[in-house]
């Protein structure tokens, strides 16, 4: 019996353990932190061996196959030791994909991948048997075991792509590439770019690659590398014969002379970045033969994603907006770009080597006050201190929201769009967003 060791007992770890057990592996789960009660219960119920708050090397180095949670860097000594021994170390996306014949749509990118994946799933679900997995919802492995959908839309991070060998989506989508997570890539942007492009490395001429033709990083990479799959670009600035583009008023998607045209003003989500997300999702739906009418209707009634430019409440004619999912500068760029009113901006957290320069035009034009919310706000104070009249440091969400409430006047927006990771003060970006919403609701 082959031994499968799962490093990390979270959503992807528990899912892999269950699928591995069902496929005849002897399974052991090891987590350096605490395993959440809901995952513990699953492991105990299924009689799967596990440990927490330690990695016992004797029980790990004897593995035939290791699935490593995306949160564990390749550089940790234990992972290096496994690789040196010749043990295959893979991600959950790779492991799970070996046990399904489903049509896979893989979506990656620095920003927009959750919205694009959720929107794509929304466009497909009325006419296809389709699951939504990856970085979102129940793990891919668990869904293969329990639901066995005929199609999957997968939101995939660069960390998950780092752990693939044969994973091959029939349709790959790359929303954009901007500097992010550079702390995991030796602070080399080219390493991160290469990681994102792994989504196409196993594709063949029978597969499709949908990407943002306006993104200079993507264009540069494609000019120097060849890919096997069929390119279907989307653009806000160019006319595209095979793929998607936008005029002032419409989105036009064309595949082999078969066209769908949709009015932009009817899209449920605002902002230029959401026109791009809609183009990517519509191209997938068109490829998978979803009816034009269904695509149009679904684009009009899509509700968006929690923690992504989510309107929370309007209090005294001030709109409070939760964009906690903006964990990098580029995501915050889109948020500030879409603000139509004077904005009180709540920013800060764990900085990943951020360069805030591209935000300066919006700060001058739209931001009237900045509230820094982080353990260390020094860089933010130094960067933006002279650009606005009001800049305040806080260490608590409740305090940040109270300050915003005091400063805001009728017609303003209060925007939580941190441009940073959340781990200095919060469990994760969801926790940060929920705390924001609770504090707003209790004003």
Main CATH class of the largest domain:
Alpha Beta
Provide the CATH superfamily of the largest domain: Mur-like, catalytic domain
Average pLDDT works out at: 94
Give the overall silhouette. Answer: globular
Q: How far do the termini sit from each other?
A: 59 Å
The largest pleated sheet is described as: 9 strands, mixed
Indicate the CATH topology of the largest domain.
Answer: UDP-N-acetylmuramoyl-L-alanine:D-glutamate ligase
Strand order of the largest sheet: 7-8-6-9-10-11-12-13-14
Catalytic activity: UDP-N-acetyl-alpha-D-muramoyl-L-alanine + D-glutamate + ATP = UDP-N-acetyl-alpha-D-muramoyl-L-alanyl-D-glutamate + ADP + phosphate + H(+)
Subcellular location: Cytoplasm
Enzyme class: ligase
Protein name: UDP-N-acetylmuramoylalanine--D-glutamate ligase
What would you note in describing this structure?
By secondary structure, this protein is α/β, with parallel strands linked by helices. The protein has helices at residues 11-22, 37-45, 57-60, 77-84, 92-97, 113-124, 140-146, 158-162, 189-196, 216-224, 272-287, 292-301, 329-337, 360-366, 378-384, 397-407, 429-441, and strands at 3-7, 26-31, 49-52, 65-68, 88-90, 103-108, 130-134, 151-155, 171-174, 208-212, 230-235, 243-246, 250-255, 258-263, 310-315, 318-322, 343-347, 367-373, 390-394, 413-416. The strands form 3 sheets. The chain has a 9-stranded mixed sheet with strand order 7-8-6-9-10-11-12-13-14, with helices on one face. Strand 10, helix 10 and strand 11 (230-235) form a beta-alpha-beta unit. The relative contact order is 0.09. The model has no long low-confidence stretch (mean pLDDT 94). ATP binds at residues 109-115. Keywords: ATP-binding, Cell cycle, Cell division, Cell shape, Cell wall biogenesis/degradation, Cytoplasm, Ligase, Nucleotide-binding, Peptidoglycan synthesis.
């Amino acid at each position: 019996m082959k031994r499968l060791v799962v490093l990390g007992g979270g959503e992807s770890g528990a899912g892999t353990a269950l699928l591995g057990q069902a496929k005849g592996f002897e399974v052991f789960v090891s987590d350096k932190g605490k395993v959440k009660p809901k995952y513990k219960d699953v492991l105990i119920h299924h009689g799967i061996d596990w440990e927490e708050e330690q990695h016992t090397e004797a029980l790990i180095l004897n593995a035939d196959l290791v699935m490593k949670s995306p949160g564990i860097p390749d550089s940790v000594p234990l992972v290096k030791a496994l690789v040196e021994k010749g043990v295959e170390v893979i991600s959950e996306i790779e492991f799970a994909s070996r046990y399904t014949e489903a049509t896979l749509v893989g979506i990656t990118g620095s920003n927009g991948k959750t919205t694009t994946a959720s929107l794509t799933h929304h466009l497909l679900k009325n006419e296809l048997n389709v699951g939504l997995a990856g970085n979102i919802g129940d793990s891919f492995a668990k869904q293969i075991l329990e639901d066995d959908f005929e199609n999957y839309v997968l939101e995939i991070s660069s960390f998950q792509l780092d752990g693939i060998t044969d994973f091959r989506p029939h349709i790959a989508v790359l929303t954009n590439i901007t500097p992010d997570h550079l702390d995991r890539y030796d602070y080399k942007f080219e390493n991160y770019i290469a990681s994102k492009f792994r989504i196409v490395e196993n594709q063949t001429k029978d597969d499709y690659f949908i990407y943002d033709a306006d993104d200079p990083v993507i264009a540069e990479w494609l000019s120097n590398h060849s890919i096997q799959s069929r390119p279907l670009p989307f653009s806000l600035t160019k006319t595209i014969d095979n793929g998607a583009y936008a005029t002032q008023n419409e989105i036009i998607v064309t595949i082999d002379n078969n066209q769908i045209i949709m009015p932009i003003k009817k899209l449920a989500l605002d902002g230029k970045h959401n026109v791009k997300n809609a183009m990517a999702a519509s191209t997938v739906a068109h490829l998978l033969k979803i009816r034009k009418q269904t695509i149009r209707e679904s684009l009009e009634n899509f509700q968006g994603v929690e923690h992504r430019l989510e309107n929370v409440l309007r209090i005294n004619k001030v709109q409070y907006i939760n964009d906690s999912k903006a964990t990098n500068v580029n995501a915050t760029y889109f948020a500030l770009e879409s603000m139509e009113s004077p904005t009180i901006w709540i920013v800060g957290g764990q900085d990943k080597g951020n360069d805030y320069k591209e935000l300066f035009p919006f700060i001058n034009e739209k931001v009237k006050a900045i509230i820094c919310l982080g353990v260390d706000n020094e860089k933010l104070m130094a960067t933006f201190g002279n650009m606005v009249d009001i800049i305040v440091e806080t260490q608590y969400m409740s305090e940040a929201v109270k300050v915003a409430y005091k400063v805001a006047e009728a017609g303003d927006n209060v925007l939580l769009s941190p441009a940073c990771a959340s781990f200095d003060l919060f469990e994760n970006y969801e926790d940060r967003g929920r705390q924001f919403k609770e504090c707003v609701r209790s004003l």
